[in-house]
């Protein structure tokens, strides 16, 4: 159970970073347009 929670937390962190990167790219594209 503990390892499952750790893996889920790690995956959530990676997903959060990925979402932030995509959002940043979208903002830069909209500013350039």
Describe this structure in words.
It is rod-shaped and about 50 Å long. With 33 residues, the chain is an all-alpha fold. The chain has one domain. It contains 1 helix and no strands.
Brief summary of the model shown:
This protein has 33 residues and is mainly α.
The helix-strand sequence is H
| Count of DSSP strands | 0
Report the span from N to C terminus: 48 Å
The assembly state of the depicted protein chains is single chain
Helix content: over 70%
Mean pLDDT: 90
Q: Characterize the largest beta sheet: strand count, sense, and whether it forms a barrel.
A: none
Q: Low-confidence stretches at least 5 residues in length (pLDDT < 50)?
A: none
> Which term fits the overall shape?
rod-shaped
Total count of helical runs of at least 4 residues = 1
Strand content: under 5%
Secondary structure elements and their pairing?
Blueprint: H1 2-32
Keywords:
single chain; 33 residues
